[in-house]
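[audit] Reproducing an earlier prediction to check determinism. Same input, same settings, fresh worker. If the tokens differ from the archived copy the diff job will pick it up downstream; this log only records the rerun itself.
[audit] input (222 residues):
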Amino acid sequence: MGDIQIISSKDKDFPIALKNISPKVEQIYVCGQLPNLGHCFAIVGTRNLTDYGKAVVSDIGYQLAKSGFVIISGLAQGIDTCAHQAALQAKQKTIAVLGTGLDDSVMFPKENLSLAKEITNHGCLISEYSNKTPGNKYSFPARNRIIAALSLGILVVEAKEKSGSLITANWAKKYKKKIFAIPGRIDSENSQGCNQLIKQGAILVQTADDIIQELKKPKTIF
């Protein structure tokens, strides 16, 4: 990976949105150019996406990026990957928040190394972990709080009943961010998490404009 900048919580460039989250973020490691964080929108979902999920995130992610949102996700396989790719296809910026350090030797998943390098040319990679820190069962769920904190809202595209994406949605709820979800077939395992979010009050999304118009309204949560 390229040059990595370390931004301490005491530095003026440290994102305001990360100053008061818990567990506390002491510093972030950034590879690439940190874009305007006031226009971030998160898209997350399952690693085992369907053709339906891929089509949805590719279209909505592209439209949101074209509308000026910085798409933020976690670089995981599946929905995360498609979200980053949609922003890049739109020739707009995207941010990947990692659950590992930013060194090539520990970055996960390895299949997304080339995508990660492309992201550094059109946005940035962010991690709270030092460069050669490998991921573990705690670090990946922990990074979800950073994704949620940096975002105006979060869209869950496909998620199983106990998906890690729902952890991100829970953090978003805690931070009073707007939560959106794509509805799916009632007999699809990948739709159980999204349909449950909608039952709980998440905003049902059919088009990118559903999100754009909702974000213009005063903040509400469920």
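[audit] rerun output stored. Observation attached for the diff report: The mean pLDDT is 94.
[audit] end
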